[in-house]
Design goal:
- By secondary structure, the chain is α/β, with parallel strands linked by helices.
- It has 9 helices and 8 strands.
- Strands 4-6-5-3-7-8 form a 6-stranded mixed sheet.
- A hairpin with a 3-residue loop joins strand 7 (201-208) and strand 8 (212-219).
- Helix 1 runs parallel beside helix 2.
- The protein starts with 6 loop residues before the first helix and ends with a helix.
- Bound molecules: L-homoserine.
Length: 246
């Protein structure tokens, strides 16, 4: 998430060579989406990145396909599996270090898990949602970011007693003053739909003009779950370009 290299260079070279791209790598998507997508259009190929947000749970292809007739005004939800897993397990009394180690074993956490804990991973997903779903070319510097490092076991217990839960929430919305994008912990009441989203599960709500709110809940991390996004994108390309049957 610093330079996006060498992945950006690989994507550019492949597109120049007339190849479709299917990747779950967030670097090129968060740092160069507009450029790579425009280049792909010139070359008549696709730059497909479903797995960069909520693993194989279809959100980008949903927005671009079935929801294409709506204006999507905002996207917000729980976008990082590792931190949601950590917060869920800590509520059951588990130690932070043990839970983080388990999140790494299960393939949820990034190679450097500070990317999850400090909110950089969710920030990348907010940037991708802004670019792909809202069509606004923001970058990481445009997202206000706070991770979960400041959430203590005492705060989790206090929330539990008061019938609430801490969640790391990512959000991007069109407002009167332009685009507002953020990642920050929020205390949600147990009656709120996001409060029941536990473990590595993620949830994303699109606020639309014609349908109202559309919410997708599903796996947000994991090896098989992310691998599925690759299949999803390959099938999408096949349907678009080869006349494949649905
Ligand atoms: N580390 C990421 C997460 C993986 O925990 O959500 C999926 O992007």
């Amino acid at each position: 998430m610093t330079t996006g290299e060498p992945a950006i260079g690989h994507c550019r070279a492949a597109i120049e060579a007339g190849k479709h791209i299917v990747t779950s790598n967030k670097g090129p998507a968060a740092l160069r989406y507009a450029e790579l997508d425009a280049l792909a259009k010139i070359k008549g190929v696709r730059f497909m990145i479903e797995g960069t947000v909520m693993a194989g749970t279809p959100v980008l292809n949903l927005a671009r396909g079935p929801l294409a007739g709506c204006e999507i005004r905002s996207a917000r939800g729980i976008l990082n599996g590792t931190t949601n897993y950590i917060l869920s397990e800590m509520e059951s009394g588990a130690e932070y270090d043990d839970v983080l180690a388990r999140a790494q074993e299960l393939g949820y956490a990034e190679a450097d898990p500070t990317g999850d804990v400090e909110g950089f991973d969710a920030m990348a997903k907010v940037v991708i949602l802004a670019n792909v779903v809202l069509g606004v070319p923001i970058g990481p510097a445009d997202v206000e970011r706070t991770g979960i490092a400041g959430i203590t076991p005492e705060m989790i217990e206090e929330a539990r007693i008061e019938k609430a839960r801490w969640k790391l929430l990512g959000s991007v919305e069109r407002g009167a003053e332009g685009i507002k994008a953020s990642v920050a912990p929020g205390r949600v009441p147990l009656s709120h739909p996001l409060a029941g989203v536990m473990g590595a599960t993620n949830a994303l709500t699109f606020e639309t003009d014609l349908l109202g709110d559309v919410t997708v809940v599903g796996p947000g991390a994991g090896k098989k779950e992310t691998g599925f996004s690759i299949l999803n994108d390959i099938l999408e390309i096949h349907r678009d370009t080869e006349g494949g049957s649905r």
